[in-house]
């Protein structure tokens, strides 16, 4: 077996299960989980209808590159959403089975093992970035995101010698778990650094459609490249998904888009990888990428929920107000995220994720997730409000 498997850390939810083992919550209180970022809003009905309509297509092998109609729907959406002059549906986009699978496989396809391979990741972070780096023979470079830098990586804090070893930089905007949005200027600064030090930028934008200000959608990496006149998106790829925007996490449908040369090499890798998207899922995806009204309705539901929950928790918890995504990232009273998580489950039957499980010790030896919680506000309004009320009551009891 690959010895690099031994380098993988336990997944955060494995650690959470071990932390809660042996605890007995109050029997009279229904469990209110705020842990996994799995949308509980109703999935987009037209996509479900398409799965039924095209179910006989499960009898056919799909092509790695997907249906032309699917790539065109994805390209149309991205072009309109990010004000691009164009996105070539033949050369600059490829359907994938969700961003998790695509992020992992992209790292395996992109690293040059003949030279040092550092992969820069925001810290705290989505664990697939780290796992993909380790299994590709790379070394993660953790870029701390904390209150001092607005929960965004400080690229200018990295020295030239380190940059020379970086082959790939991951961004997550809007951020998981912080909700921070990467501004256009930061994207463009990173593009300049990529030109100088010869690395690829991979921007995970799966939360891009869950933003609180309808007039200010988060910018994207391809948008930033186009604004610099780089309409070939050189060195840039983005990852998008239907999981959050259309409440279809189980569909496992998304796309990777950007630099045609990178996409072409990635396609070759995927031909051997054996991960083509089933044809009924492609048809469901065409429906979802072609409609925006259900996405606007989804944002409205999240805005109402954020307003309710922040009103409940702001008097007792300190947290950055997220610009997007569906997470809150509060600091824990007295600073011990594991102890608070155990107590919250045992006394209030609410599950949260300790922030330290999403981070690693940074350059100063401090884990930027320590002393924080990730609250996933994914359920419907009333269960989520009730969970927030229980958290507040626990804190007020002291």
Description of the molecule:
There is one protein chain. The protein is of the alpha/beta class and 398 residues long. The protein is 40% helix and 13% strand. The chain has 14 helices and 12 strands. It has helices at residues 12-20, 45-53, 68-81, 98-110, 127-135, 160-163, 184-197, 221-227, 242-245, 260-273, 279-289, 293-313, 337-348, 381-397; strands spanning 32-33, 93-96, 118-123, 139-144, 166-172, 200-204, 236-241, 254-258, 327-328, 350-351, 353-354, 373-376. The strands form 3 sheets. It has a 7-stranded mixed sheet with strand order 2-8-7-6-5-3-4, with helices on both faces. A 3-stranded antiparallel sheet has the order 9-12-11. It has a two-stranded parallel sheet with strand order 1-10. Strand 3, helix 5 (127-135) and strand 4 (139-144) form a beta-alpha-beta unit. Helix 3 (68-81) packs parallel to helix 11 (279-289) and helix 7 (184-197) packs across helix 8 (221-227). The protein is globular and about 60 Å long. The chain starts with 11 loop residues before the first helix and ends with a helix. The relative contact order is 0.19. The mean pLDDT is 96.
């Amino acid at each position: 077996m690959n010895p690099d498997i031994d380098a993988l850390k336990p997944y955060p939810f494995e650690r959470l299960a071990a932390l809660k083992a042996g605890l007995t919550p109050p029997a009279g209180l229904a469990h209110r989980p705020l842990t996994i970022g799995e949308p509980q809003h109703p999935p987009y009905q037209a996509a479900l209808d398409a799965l039924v309509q095209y179910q006989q297509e499960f009898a056919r092998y799909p092509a790695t590159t997907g249906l032309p109609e699917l790539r065109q729907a994805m390209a149309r959406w991205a072009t309109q959403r990010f004000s691009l002059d164009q996105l070539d549906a033949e050369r600059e986009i490829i359907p994938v089975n969700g961003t998790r699978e695509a992020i992992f496989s992209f790292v395996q396809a992109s690293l040059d093992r003949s030279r040092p391979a550092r992969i820069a990741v925001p810290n705290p972070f989505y664990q697939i970035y780290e796992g993909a780096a380790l299994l590709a023979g790379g070394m993660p470079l953790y870029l701390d995101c904390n209150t001092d830098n607005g929960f965004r990586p400080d690229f200018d804090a990295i020295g030239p010698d380190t940059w020379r070893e970086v082959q790939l930089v991951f961004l997550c905007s809007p951020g998981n778990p912080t909700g921070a949005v990467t501004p256009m200027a930061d994207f463009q600064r990173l593009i300049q650094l990529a030109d100088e030090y010869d690395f690829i930028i991979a921007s995970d934008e799966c939360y891009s459609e869950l933003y609180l200000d309808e007039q200010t959608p988060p910018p994207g990496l391809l948008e930033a490249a186009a604004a610099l006149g780089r309409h070939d998106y050189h060195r840039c790829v983005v990852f998008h998904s239907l999981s959050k925007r259309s409440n279809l996490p189980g569909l496992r449908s998304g796309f990777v888009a950007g630099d045609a040369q990178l996409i072409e090499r990635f396609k070759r890798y995927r031909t051997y990888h054996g991960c083509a998207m089933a044809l009924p899922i492609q048809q469901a995806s065409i429906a979802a990428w072609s409609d925006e009204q259900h996405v606007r309705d989804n944002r409205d539901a999240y805005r109402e929920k954020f307003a309710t929950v922040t009103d409940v928790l702001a008097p007792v918890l300190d947290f950055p107000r997220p610009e997007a995504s569906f997470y809150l990232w509060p600091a824990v009273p007295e600073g011990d995220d594991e102890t608070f998580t155990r107590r919250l489950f045992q006394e209030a039957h609410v599950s949260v994720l300790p922030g330290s499980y999403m981070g690693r010790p940074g350059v100063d030896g401090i884990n930027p997730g320590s002393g924080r919680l990730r609250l996933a506000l994914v359920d419907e309004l009333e269960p989520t409000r009730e969970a927030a009320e229980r958290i507040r009551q626990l804190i007020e009891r002291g």
